[in-house]
Amino acid sequence: MKDKEKAREQPQSDKMLLGSGDSESVHLDTELERRLHELRQDKHYLESILSHIYDDVIVVDKDYRIIDVNKAVLSTTGHKREQIIGRHCYEIFHGYDDPCEKHGEHCALREAFQTGRSSYSRHQHIHADGSKVWVDIFFTPLRDENGNLTQVVKIVRDVTDHVKTEGVLRESEENFRALAENANDGIMVMIGKGVHVYANKRAGEISGYSASELRKITIKDWAHPDEFKKIIKIYRAIVDGKSYQRQFETTLIRKDGKAVPLEVVSARTKWHGEYAYLVIFRDISEKKQTEEALKKAHTELERRVQERTADLAKKTEQLKEANTALKVLLKQREDDKIELQENVLANFQQLVLPYLEELKKSQLDAHRAAIVSALESNLNDITAPFAKRLSSKYSNLTPAEIKIANLIRDGRTTKEIAVLLHLSEHTIKSHRSNIRRKLRLKNKQANLRSHLSSLQE
After folding, report:
1. 417 — phi, psi (to 5°)?
2. Phi/psi zone of residue 59: left (φ > 0), alpha (ψ -120 to 50 degrees), beta?
3. Entry pTM
4. Helix (H, G, I), strand (E, B) or coil at 258
5. Domain 56-158 belongs to what topology?
6. Which superfamily does CATH assign the domain made up of 183-283 to?
């Protein structure tokens, strides 16, 4: 402010000294007025620029004393101009009693004065509210008309958010590396034409390459020749942001030439601002071996099941055949049993019964008659089950008709039956007629003997 007052007063005093009547003096006075006006405009222009600069601008001398500041500094520190000018910068911005380097901080101000070149440093400054902020400080030397370095301009920029972001990114990267380096899966990051920029420890173990070797090779160096086109197609799709196959299986060729089956999960990411290909993979050799063993076991199981099924089918067929044969044998046995019963009954009726009848009609004393009667009773008891079974087939026939029906079935003629039963042929014919009627064969051309034989089956 004092400089401004002097600048304003100077033209008037000079004007008085020169005298108003002298033309040369008037000319010099006018020129001086013009130059002073230009200087005032330049100063106002510079002050306007400085006052509207968002960053803090401080002019400092060799003794760290503040010569001038812009309005941003007053807002940042919470001080008035007169409270700042003439004080040391480390007092205002750090609260120190000594220069920053004595507190273990690098101060580029001294460096700028010593080298005469611009310099840079990052510090923590104290704001008006007591909070500490990170700032980037750019130091630019100022020289006088003789080229002597007299002052340094400090431009201070608040980079707290940037530092926090850097910290978050750094922490994120450290977490990623800690996670990746301890992962059981191989992890690689590729950019450009498939150049590796990162590979974790496990990736090296699976591939047989060291991490540094992996960073010197590309996809083509480790991909199986039959799989390279597929992998590079997926890689390009991912880097270009197109749809792609996120999970797939492929084969890696180790450094020693051994083929290793892999299960891969891929994704698009960024590596230092550039789109990259993140690939996470695991060796599935054991899985493949297990799958192959399971496949063989399944095939063997299917073979055994088929053999067992065929064997069971064969045994089932054999059982069916045996069952059929058994049924045939049982039926034959039943038929033989029936035939035996019928033969016994027929023989009794034909060979025994007539003689018993004859004996009964003969002159027998009481004792012999009793014997014949007992014999007839016992024989009837023996043949009764046979006769009962046979009579069940002819349930509507009388005992005499059953006896005649059996003789007809055996092929006996009417005359033969009459002789055997000691009956007249007329009686036998009458019984034959009743048998046909009861068997519903009357007025039919059916053969009575054949029909009786069919009922016996």
Report:
1. -65, -40
2. beta
3. 0.42
4. coil
5. Beta-Lactamase (3.30.450)
6. PAS domain (3.30.450.20)
